[in-house]
Amino acid sequence: MSLYLDYLAEIESRKTELGLAPKPIDSAELLSEIIAQIKDTGNEHREESLKFFIYNTLPGTTSAAGVKAAFLKEIITGQETVAEISVEFAFELLSHMKGGPSIAALLDLALGDNAELATQAATVLKTQVFLYDADTARLQDAFKAGNAVAKDILESYANAEFFTKLPEVQEKIEVVTYIAGVGDISTDLLSPGHQSHSRADRELHGQCMITPEAQQEIVALQEQHPGKKVMLVAEKGTMGVGSSRMSGVNNVALWAGEQASPYVPFINIAPVVAGTNGIAPIFLTTVDVTGGIGLDLKNWVKKVDADGNTVTDANGDPVLEEAYSVATGTVLTIDTKAKKLFNGGDELADISSAFTPQKMEFMKAGGSYAVTFGKKLQTFAAETLGVDAPAVYAQSKEISHEGQGLTAVEKIFNRNAVGVASDAPLHAGSDVRVKVNIVGSQDTTGPMTCQELEAMAASTISTSVDGAFQSGCHTASVWDNKAKANTPKLMAFMNAFGVITARDPKGVYHSMTDVIHKVLNDITIDDRAIIIGGDSHTRMSKGVAFGADSGTVAIALATGESAMPIPESVKVTFKGNMAGHMDFRDIVHATQAQMLKQFDGENVFQGRIIEVHIGTLLADQAFTFTDWSAEMKAKASICISNNETLIESIELAKSRIQIMIDKGMENEAGMLGGLIKLADERIAGIKSGEQPALAPDDNAKYYAEVEIDLDAIAEPMIADPDVNNEDVSKRYTHDVIRPVSYYDGKPVDLGFVGSCMVHKGDMQIIAQMFRNLEKQNGAIEFKAPLVVAPPTYNIVDELKAEGDWDILAKYSGFVFDDTNPKEAARTKYDNIMYLERPGCNLCMGNQEKAEPGDTVIATSTRLFQGRVVADASDKKGESLLGSTPLVVLSTVLGRFPTMDEYKSAVEGIDLTRFTPPTEEMTTKYDAAVPVKRV
Question: How high is the pLDDT of residue 548?
Fold first, then answer.
């Protein structure tokens, strides 16, 4: 049976079972068969083969794109004749293929002997930006050899005509509102985790956005309001919290955006999204990737009394009142020139933050990728020609305040800034390109990152990236058919691209399912590094890490750079003493609660960097704080450590990198060995005193400063989704933090210790608790199931070597077996402990879940509705978050413990301890010291 007939069978199956269009073609073999049928004028499949070739073949560096470009070149040169594809149409099709084989074909024609074709090819090339070293080298060599066409193309590139000749952004954009939800809208609503396996199939994945009913309501609004865009709104909340999710923006664009190219199916761009409290930072970056618009509406404001004081409700929360309505079906006008939002002639809001010069460029270019590559191409062309590049793009926004010191993040950005004009130190608000040191890709977004790399014609990792890792943790729990189909293909692509991969395509080393954030925390060996990762919990405790969409990860892998503004910072310090029975997780939760109280309910962390002065807490333990900062809605977090602690953390990272090398995970470029060398250099710099641990200047300026009182934390603290709050906008926000005594014996249906929020110390705490409980009670019986998932294999190996694994296994009714992994997710749990494979497990919600309606107590980070536990018909599922000892004890008791029970269970156990630094964690400001830039 031919590949084409197999494809037709798949088309019929998709149409009959799912109501979907044919899947876009990425296979060279299938497209070759289709081309053979096009050449055969009498073939019964010729007409539909033409349509597949023209309208249904993926561009970029897919193998199909290579075959398509070659055939179009043959048509252009007259080697093949297809009546329906003229030479002009063939050039047009090449112009929509973005890069890779299409650029190679166009360069062949432009630098060839046929003058007429060379001119036509040059005209198309002048519109292209996705050129790589091999492409630019050909142009450079031809120019030096005196080729006039190459000179003409380079002159066009130097003037950035690929950008300047694009249409300007519309001055007036009419939108019709659609309330996608009340309260914070998580990206899980737009792209559910349990549907992650389908993200690379854009049409199929689009079926899971919100609900089928919502999708039809959006379609109905489009039919009622032709010519207007549907704007999805988070009413009384923030749009896109929790995760970057390129797939979430893709889904919104699919239903409410515009098609990027008539010849590429289901790739839409330019959606419009909005929130009462704006757009979550990393989600907004994803919107920029597509050239979309993200609005901060501020349509609900705090109510004040006659004296100007905020009015609060019975719970002490501010009362909100509506400033203007954005109810579904409201027609509004976005004025991109005035940067205002209007309802008819009434001005509703200043939306200038959505229309900075940089964001306007993204909109004009159809996305941020084209701007990034365009700037690089312009610089290359100007340097090759020996001319100054004209100022076409908006200048990098460079803000410097004379006499003002730098925060920690400002120092990192200054150190890594690329192409900055000014010699003065840059402060928050500056918008710059920066070198990216470490890049991470995880397995449920990885297939999309591969697609993005193919679409931008990238074939190998940038040599300027110090370290990169592709994980297998998000699909670690169940080795089902979806994982078997997607994961090996992903690992093979990334391994060939030059990324260290959790799974070896050649089968040399044992497959790892280590949680990506833990691995990235280990391979980050410099506190001055910038890290980009395909997950919102890319929050390392060394350097500054930004969770990002799959596209931003792809651009970082391909170019070693990223463009972003320098964020403002909030300084967090501590005072007092941590009670002996408290765990550091309780301090983390209390930080959120005390911050909200200090600022009358305003989340000053949102969209900013949390600079936490942690002092002597090692990177593993400090990661508990930085990881949680994603749920604080912070853009990122930075830990300020003293010299001795930083050296110890880097030494630990070196040992774990060496374990990866010993397992056979090193690649041909010697990436892991290079990281150890960089680690040694960093340690030497600290010890010599020439490059001490990162610290802010003593006169740095912060948006706010928060001091956490450790003496005020007397009970384990719980982050509560507050599922029954009458105000739906206040559910699932991570802002409700309560002491354990509030729950007063509340039943617990399941406990979970795992994901990225735990470290080796948590596993040791479980073992110590079991010894305590054995001593007190003689035996341990679970009255609720307990799921334990260590974050990495290294931890499992260390626990086995040190003896703690034995007692964990002793009380486990299930212990993972990599030789026989689970092939189906659990739907029911017994009252036993499940010792699971390292990975994300319940936190991800895409494979394993608690039983519907359960009350779960977990160390996880997610409170999203339906993530860890779905609702039952008679009871809402709730995932309450707490410390490891609290989770373990709650499952032994089958309920929340009393304080006496809790103290007894943890007596004598060395919990994750924290002592505030006694010295100021700052450096003296010296205006004369220049800032090193890349």
Answer: 84
- At 215, list the tokens: 């999708």
Does the structure show a pLDDT above 70 at 1? no
- Tokens standing for 269? 């761009």
Q: Collapsing DSSP states into helix, strand and coil, what is residue 151?
A: helix
**How far, in Å, CA of 811 to CA of 734, rounded?**
32
Nearest to 276 by CA among 171, 176, 180, 175: 180
**How far apart are the C-alpha atoms of 129 and 146, rounded to whole Å?**
23
Dihedral sign for Cα atoms in the order 211, 277, 742, 901 = positive
Which token pair is 525? 């060996």
Structure tokens at 9: 């069978």
Burial tier of 816 (Cβ tally within 10 Å: 0-12, 13-18, 19+): buried
Count Cβ atoms below 10 Å from residue 928 Cβ, excluding itself.
Answer: 4
DSSP codes of every residue in 741-782? GGGTT-B-SEEEEEGGG--HHHHHHHHHHHHHHHHHHSS---
Q: How high is the pLDDT of residue 704?
A: 97
Question: H/E element holding 272?
Answer: strand 272-275
- Whole-angstrom Cα distance, residue 440 to residue 817? 27
62: left (phi over 0), alpha (psi -120 to 50) or beta: beta
Measured distance CA(485)–CA(495) in Å, rounded: 17
**In a 3-state reduction of DSSP, which class is residue 276?**
coil
CA distance 922 to 695: 5
What residues are paired with 235 via a beta bridge? 182
Cβ contact 336:344 at 8 Å: no
Give pLDDT tens digits for 194-245: 787 888 889 999 999 999 999 999 999 999 999 999 999 999 999 998 766 7
Residue 93 pLDDT grade (very low, low, confident, very high; cuts 50, 70, 90): very high
**Strands annotated E in 792-904:** 812-815, 833-835, 855-858, 878-881
Among 709, 359, 696, 376, which residue's Cα sits nearest to residue 544?
696
Percentages (nearest 5) of helix, strand, coil residues in the chain:
40, 15, 45
Q: In 10 A of CB 262, how many CB atoms?
A: 10
Predicted confidence (pLDDT) at residue 432 exceeds the cutoff of 80: yes
What is the spatial order of strands in the sheet that 467-470 belongs to?
500-501, 467-470, 438-441, 530-533, 544-547
CA 190, 194, 200, 202: dihedral to nearest 10 degrees? -40
DSSP structural state of residue 509? S
Q: For 346-356, what is each residue's pLDDT tens digit? A: 999 999 999 99
Report the SS3 class of residue 912: coil
Mark residue 432 as left, alpha or beta (left: phi above 0; alpha: psi -120 to 50; beta: remaining). beta
At residue 926, the pLDDT reads 81
* HSE toward the beta carbon, residue 805, CA cutoff 13 A: 16
The residue written with tokens 């600079």 in the block is 611
The mean pLDDT value for 660-688 works out to 96
Reported in sequence order, the residue ranges of 643-749 that DSSP labels E, i.e. its strands, are: 704-709, 717-719, 737-739
Query: Does the pLDDT of residue 474 top 80, yes or no?
Result: yes
**791 three-class SS:** coil
Q: How many CB atoms sit inside 10 A of residue 622's CB?
A: 27
Place of tokens 């004209």: 390
Q: What are phi and psi of 63, to 5 degrees?
A: -65, -30
Q: How far apart are CA 895 and CA 744, in angstroms?
A: 9
Instruction: Quote the crossing angle between the two packed helices 148-158 and 101-110, to the nearest 10°.
Output: 130
Q: CA 340 to CA 612: how far, in whole Å?
A: 36
Cα atoms in the 13 Å half-sphere on the side-chain side of 87: 12
Cβ atoms 530, 544 nearer than 8 A: yes
Residue 820 sits at φ, ψ, to 5 deg, of: -145, 65
Each residue of 622-645: pLDDT tens digit? 888 888 888 888 899 999 999 999
Strand spans (E) along 124-228: 172-182, 185-186
